[in-house]
Amino acid sequence: MQRSTLVRSLSIAGVILSLLSVGGPSAAAATTSPTPVPTFRADDSHKYDDQIAKYGDVKDKLIKLVGARNTRDLGGYRTADGKWEIRPNRLIRSDNLNGLTNTDKTTLASDHHVTSIVDFRTDSQVDYLPDQHILGATNIVLSILGEKALTDGQSLDSAFDEDGGFYVHQLEFSKTAIDGYRRFLNLLLLNSHATLYHCSSGKDRTGIATVLIMTILGMSDQTIMNDYMQSYQTGRTVKESWLNEYFREIKSRYKDMNHYITNVLGFSRIQQRQLREMYLVSTDKQHTPYTQADDHTFHEAPAPAKAQTKPQPASHPTVSSSVAPAPQAPQAPQATPRSVPDTPVPATITTGSADAAVKPAKAKGKIISSKKLHTKYIYRLKANKKWFKDAHLQKKLGHTAKHKHTTWKLTKVERIKIKGKTYTYYQVQDHAGHKAWILKSYVVKAN
User: Fold this and answer.
1) Which residues of 346-367 are buried (b: 16+ CB within 10 A; e: fewer)?
2) CB of 436 closer than 8 Å to CB of 426
3) Max Cα-Cα span within the chain
4) Mean pLDDT of 348-352
5) Are 372 and 390 in contact (CB under 8 A)?
6) Confidence grade of residue 173 (pLDDT, cut at 50, 70, 90)
7) How far is CA 296 from the centre of its chain?
8) What is the 3-state secondary structure (H, E, C) of 371-386?
9) Neighbour tally for 151: CB within 10 Å
10) The whole model's pTM is what?
11) CA dist., res. 281 & res. 286, Å (int)
12) Average pLDDT over residues 307-328
């Protein structure tokens, strides 16, 4: 009887083990061969068809990898005049590289000649999902969102409003974004092979880096938008409104993207020309490298317009639409790349702006009293309200997000006099250390 029970138990155990081996990979297999995430879902096929018809097929640029699904070669994109195109295997955008297999790493190193990897993630994101090492490639961490982003530990999508306020606040004007993108562009001038740059999902921080590159190289706004929106076909959330708001804010302050790149990022006209010389070839069969003699197609920045002096209504202080100098970014903690020190720029590369300096417009508000505050993160901001970067209400950030999930603390209160009337503004700070000024009536206590 005991022997019969033992045999029956062993048989049941054997069946269970067999089912387990059929139903899923072993632990060893799971650690060495990550399961690829499908790019398309069958139930949403019509949505992807619409996206492909409007923005082009992402598969035309996609590098097929098992451990990453938004890795794309910018090679082949043409300039607005159709005369030049980006060299292949030189500029590669991607999502994070934590899940790369050995085959993936060989593909990037051997087939695409990747020798430099620039990681835009925060330190905590890098620590949680470190990149797989690619043989022969150097890794540089340039956190675009500072030492610890407000969005660490949650989806970046949850930080976005409908009109792209996140892009304007953190990817356009924040000090860490300006410094990070400036260093990134300088790094591109130092690599004669392929540079792969990425963030977590390869769509936001990486997307704006791609916008900057393609603007300098001369792609049209539509080509830039098409590439940006193709992340949707890899299962990412992107919206035209986010990038449109980014463009709108830059053009309202600096006239165009070229002035922003030159005057705010400090990437000079000479450096921009050098980038074109490195990464563009002719679209004919000769694939002739771009030279300085060809640079007449890229217009030099015209003399900056005079600052607007017409008085503005007191209830809506605004910023002059003329070209402005680099804004004083919110005082967010700045991340220091952990892999290498500040990358030196060769003597042949001119740093700083090549355009004439412009005096800032006269401040619209006069501060008549100021007091420091020490509150907790228990305040929310009303949706779609104007906020500013400085206490004089001179540098507008745009509008607050439409969602109200973010909590802020109050760090300062000031009374500001504008054309004889007095207003009270709070300086608010988010969990990442970014600060902004907003009218007192737009701040509400969460609990």
Assistant:
1) eeeeeeebbbeebebbebbbee
2) no
3) 102
4) 35
5) no
6) confident
7) 30
8) EECCCCCCEEECCCCE
9) 22
10) 0.61
11) 9
12) 37
